[in-house]
Amino acid sequence: DWSMKGFVDEAVATIRATVGETGRVIGAVSGGVDSTVAAVLMNRAIGDRFHAVLVDNGLLRKDEAVNVVKRLRDECGVSLTCVDASEEFLGRLAGVSDPEKKRKAIGNLFIEVFEREAARIGKCDFLLQGTLYPDVIESVSFRGPSATIKSHHNVGGLLDVMKLRLIEPLRELFKDEVRHLGMAMGLPRDSVYRHPFPGPGLAIRILGPVDKEACDLLREADFIYLEELRRTGEYDKIGQAFAVLLPCKSVGVMGDCRTYERVLALRAAATSDFMTAKAHRMPYEILETVSTRIINEVRGINRVVYDCTSKPPGTIEWE
Ligand code: XMP
Hints:
Elements: H1 2-19, E1 25-28, H2 33-46, E2 50-56, H3 64-75, E3 79-84, H4 86-93, H5 99-121, E4 126-128, H6 133-137, H7 158-162, E5 165-167, H8 175-184, H9 189-192, H10 212-232, E6 240-254, E7 257-270, E8 278-279, H11 284-297, E9 301-306
The structure holds xanthosine-5'-monophosphate.
The site of xanthosine-5'-monophosphate has 14 residues, from loops.
């Protein structure tokens, strides 16, 4: 629409004025709508003087890194480096069960990997952040009350160490405006309207210790869940949906054999602000299809349950 096209031009002009003729900008992208829109805007403004870094921490969803590279680099022309640090992340997480320890380990390593990559890219002047207006007005960020009881995943520490100035082209916008902006710049709808995904990724959706096997199991199950939600049109009615791998096994029967395998929980949060949420009233047919498909297609999971907890008292993520 007209006002958003106007905003694109205005944002591009502001970025050029801030960065100058020769300034260089670096920024992390995750595949989420905020960092994607910010990166594409940056690329429009200063081309390859903007460098995007995608850290594959091994905790991303199925095919996510490949899809982000395809969308941002191949389709949008963003100068993007994808760093495969999955072994390093899984190494740091080995044997760690405590959710706060997982978050700290992931956050710290993220900064190390990003700094290493920044050194390879060369001197930059600015760090791009996809900060939105709600993050600015509430110091606790869009996550609301629970943000104060969990350590947040951010790159603020990079500024001092790398002597970078912050550039935040989305800091006057609300989420829905960022989405309109993404559409106005021609990004695909499913990229603009996707559910949020947390920085620590699958590590906080695998309860107990995290290893490659558990990540692969959860990736497959989560993929089937989201595929069915998209196929049935339910996805767009939900604020955030994902699967959680529980650290326990239960007995089942498959053919003539006894099984003893992992339990998977499905979460679907009905919310628009993510501060409070209700469990989405999922049509039973979808639950049945998803459960049957996961148990048949993912060896290692033999039971699927649905989470009916509101926030509060629950949080959206299980951790
Ligand atoms: P909770 O679990 O606190 O989650 O109810 C609220 C929203 O925040 C997301 N979340 C995060 N997002 N970095 C993020 O960018 C994080 O470390 C993080 N932790 C939780 C969560 O997915 C939900 O949308």
